[in-house]
Design brief:
518 residues; alpha+beta; 8-stranded mixed beta sheet; 6-stranded mixed beta sheet; 14 helices; globular
């Protein structure tokens, strides 16, 4: 996809100042090590499990055939070039020569094919990206034959799910010891929820790797992560927020980068048969009871744009023109509940179902991102005002994934990159296509399915845009999902390190460009 899609994506470096005592930090003059503060995410480094391949990519361990640059453009990586048939059913990727895995094994087209086949065999997420019929090798070319046209295969293969691993080794060790990949760093040690230590890949194919060792330290609490950067315990801090800016105000020892987010925080509403939220009237009332503008402007201190649609306004897919019939209207919400038969018959302040049964919605959340808890608690308070009882169930991210997959929720918080393949196609298919393995909320609209299938084979950018706008409007009209907001993303770093960049597709936290300042 072309960069024209990213009409508002802009990374801005801000100079911040704060009294900083160098006495609090000592670094050996010849040290070539840094520590990065991250939020915990994965209990395994097996890249085909859930979304944990993102960690393998973010920690500079694994690479894909293609990647995204800092402008969101698809560029070559382990493939030098690619081309497609006119019908989008055949894609040919020329595999780069001279690449070695971190153990010294040569990366051949046959090994690339084996790696992608391994992913296809082990992950049920693959069909949301492409419907693979077969693959073949012709010289340095890897040829994909698809059952379903794909206009964005190069973007699909940039998702970390498809990072290339050495399949000639014992892959049972990948979970705790890390996969053998081609990135600038290789795993030295991994402790879930604590840290991952990576060391220089001496066989790296794409230039010098400047650091000997990098520790990715899990610091889930936002305040603790900010303090760790201030004291020098860490050198780079991911996922700090607007309220942290004041802590670094006036200190030119830090670089702060800001990115208008391509991420969306939303909550699935479980519409499966037998669930309370299978009733559209209840979903409509719930949506109208949420004051998302206040959540973003006041509670998050302007650190997010209020949500209404699947795709944020940072991407040019008709956000301002989409009609939100379920925007904040608490009195309208109460009227919908009354008309649909939801009444408080026992006087406890909460409505019962039309059948007279107690109504409590189970809202499953995780809090490694601070804003998720803010949204959830605010929603609970807002919905109490209109008589809907919500129980917050706070779990680990890994447990949340299990509960999502088994459908054990009424509402479930989610935060994802909406353009993980370069535009929103895969994101929309994965979450709202009726046959998607990840659509555990039971959403089913035949028109949305038809539009998504049409989108898969559409190459013209304007036609793709029109289809994506129609899909979004259908999802909104169905009152299918709570779109809370689109958060501004920040990256804080100590100036003792250089080469730190933010990417619109946040697959790349540690890169070969990060090094110690001279």
């Amino acid at each position: 996809m072309k960069n024209t899609l990213f009409k508002k994506v802009l990374a801005v470096a801000l100079a911040c100042t704060m009294t900083f005592s160098m006495a609090t930090v000592t670094h050996a003059a010849d040290a070539k090590e840094i520590t990065i503060g991250v939020t915990s995410f994965a209990d395994t480094l097996e890249p085909t499990e859930q979304y944990f391949s993102w960690v393998v990519s973010r920690y500079a361990i694994g690479e894909c055939l293609t990647k995204f640059d800092e402008n969101g453009e698809i560029v070559p990586c382990l493939a030098e070039s690619w081309e497609n048939s006119e019908d989008g059913l055949t894609w040919t990727f020329k595999i780069r020569e001279g690449v070695k895995f971190s153990n010294g094994d040569d990366m051949t087209p046959e090994m690339v094919m084996a790696s992608i086949q391994r992913t296809a065999d082990k992950s049920d997420r693959v069909p949301e990206f492409f419907d693979l019929d077969s693959m073949e090798v012709d010289g340095q070319n890897l040829i994909f034959h698809l059952n379903r046209a794909n206009a964005n295969m190069a973007g699909s293969l940039a998702d970390p799910l498809f990072l290339i691993v050495d399949t000639n080794v014992d892959d049972s060790t990948f979970a705790m010891e890390g996969p053998i990949c081609t990135g600038p760093y290789a795993v030295e040690s991994f402790s879930p929820t604590d840290s991952c230590v990576v060391v220089r890949n001496e066989n790296y194919w794409d230039g010098e790797v400047p650091l000997d060792k990098v520790t990715l330290k899990c610091v889930d609490d936002q305040t603790t992560r900010s303090m760790a950067l201030q004291t020098g315990e860490i050198d780079i801090a991911y996922n700090l927020k607007t309220e942290n800016l004041v802590e670094f105000e006036g200190n030119d020892n830090y670089d702060i980068q800001e990115l208008q987010s391509l991420r969306s925080t939303y909550a699935f509403m479980n519409q499966s048969e037998g669930r309370a939220l299978s009733d559209k009237a209840l979903r409509q009332a719930l949506l109208r009871g949420l004051d998302k503008q206040t959540y973003c402007d006041v509670l998050l201190e302007g650190g997010a744009t209020a949500g209404k649609a699947p795709v944020p306004p940072t991407l040019d897919f008709g956000f301002d023109d989409l009609n939100d019939e379920n925007s904040y209207d608490p009195e309208g919400a109460k009227a919908i509940l009354e008309e649909a038969g939801y009444k408080d018959t026992d006087g406890d302040g909460f409505v019962e179902t039309p059948d007279g049964d107690p109504l409590t919605l189970d809202f499953v959340i995780y809090t490694s991102r601070a804003e998720l808890g803010v949204y959830a608690q605010a929603a609970q308070a807002s919905l109490k005002e209109i008589g809907i009882n919500v129980n917050l169930n706070t779990v680990s991210y890994e447990t949340l994934l299990d509960m999502r997959d088994s459908g054990q929720y009424d509402l479930l918080i989610w935060n994802v990159l909406v353009a993980n393949t370069g535009d929103p196609e895969n994101y929309l298919r994965e979450n709202w296509y009726s046959k998607s393995a990840n659509n555990t909320a039971g959403y089913n609209n035949p028109e949305v399915d038809e539009l998504l299938d049409e989108l898969a084979g559409t190459f013209d950018e304007e036609e793709r845009k029109d289809l994506i706008i129609k899909i979004q409007q259908d999802i909104m009209d169905d009152a299918a999902t709570v779109f809370f907001g689109y958060e501004t993303t920040y990256l804080f770093s100590n100036k003792r390190v250089t080469g730190v960049k933010m990417y619109p597709m946040d697959y790349y936290w540690l890169t070969k460009d990060i090094t110690l300042a001279e």
